[in-house]
Amino acid sequence: MFGNLKALPADPILGLLAKYREDNNPNKIDLGVGVYKNEAGHTAILDCVKKAEKFRLETEDTKVYIGPTGSPLFNEEMTKLIFSDEHQVITHNRVRTVSTPGGTGALRVAAEFIGSCKQGATIWVSNPTWANHTGLFQAAGLTVKTYPYYDYENKSLDFDGMLAALKKVAADDVVLLHACCHNPSGMDLTSEQWQQVAEVAKSVGFLPLIDMAYQGFGQGLDEDAYGLRLMADSVKEMIVCSSCSKNFGLYRERIGACSIIGESSTGVDIAHSVLLSDIRCIYSMPPAHGAAIVETILSSDELRNQWYDELKEMRDRINGNRKLLVEKLIEQGVTRDFSFITRQSGMFSFLGITPEQVQRLQDEFSIYMVGSSRMSIAGIAQSNVDYLAESIAKVL
Ligand code: LMR
């Protein structure tokens, strides 16, 4: 049986991690996979996470099965974090949230659920989008199509193209939108643009699926959820997939959430029962440790405030790195305008160089970024930015 298989290339993002780890150059820089790094280049465990883990270690008294929904307290706290306490989907009892194995698990569960609603449904994703979206949705039997999004030439949003395409989507199609910190372009919608997209969603009637993997990494926890909350105010049904990998730094714990919004509380209960059946058939029930950490932090005033501070520190450092790189490129005498990097948001931006130049950065300077020239801005530090800018200047 295995003899029929052909070897596949390594994942374009995760494959870089292995190459970077094997590289012995002391000056190497990892701008590949989207993980936060501090000034020392380390992905440290947040202090609030350490405290929550200590508390759980002392108080946890069973490892018995938790069920396909995961932890009820985690689900409740995440729903409030995503939508805000007073949002009408909460007060009208129209939302159900389940814990999932990371944001990818949430997306896969959502995809299976969409397939249960309509076999082979079409999902529209932005061009470009996160490298794993297409494969993940196709693996669940969905048909993937793209709508215009990033204008590579002008390093901006092709909003007219996006809106025109969304107006032509069928009413029983799904449209994937990034809540904030668009991966890979860093190009987010403004509040006004979200309002227009929400109006189109309402009039066309498509199902919005919102991927929020970076809440708090763009402008702030509430600011980053603005579009999603507005959309939830405008449409009858919606799905949100969120991740605690980045904002809680819980990458390997695999914890995220999938929230479904229905037209009524009875309607969403039916949808929830289908979602649980889909989960049971994929992984039965989610891992518990990450959820336990997050619910401990979110339900304690002290730990929650500490988390706000630690999240702000990460956000500010990333935003600072954006300015720093642009300044250093100017210092290196680079005349091409890279100021767009400071107008983008979150973990990523495209540098806008060719695949050959990306390869040269890797081969000659041990600087790793995805072939599309997507950079993980968190990998920049005071200690490596001069070398980075100098190397970019050389390949330009
Ligand atoms: C990324 O885009 O680098 C992250 O979301 C990590 C991943 O799983 O691809």
Describe this structure in words.
There is one protein chain. The longest helix has 31 residues, at 301-331. The protein is 46% helix and 14% strand. The protein folds into two domains: 11-44 and 315-395, Alpha-Beta Complex (Aspartate Aminotransferase, domain 1); 65-299, 3-Layer(aba) Sandwich (Aspartate Aminotransferase, domain 2), CATH 3.40.640. It has helices at 14-22, 47-59, 72-83, 88-91, 102-117, 131-139, 159-167, 191-204, 221-224, 226-234, 265-282, 289-298, 301-331, 340-343, 355-365, 385-395; strands at 29-30, 95-100, 122-127, 143-148, 150-151, 156-157, 174-178, 207-212, 238-243, 256-261, 348-350, 367-368, 374-376. Helix 2 (47-59) crosses helix 12 and helix 3 (72-83) packs across helix 12 (289-298). With 396 residues, it is of the alpha/beta class. It has 16 helices and 13 strands. Strands 2-10-9-8-7-3-4 form a seven-stranded mixed β-sheet, with helices on both faces.
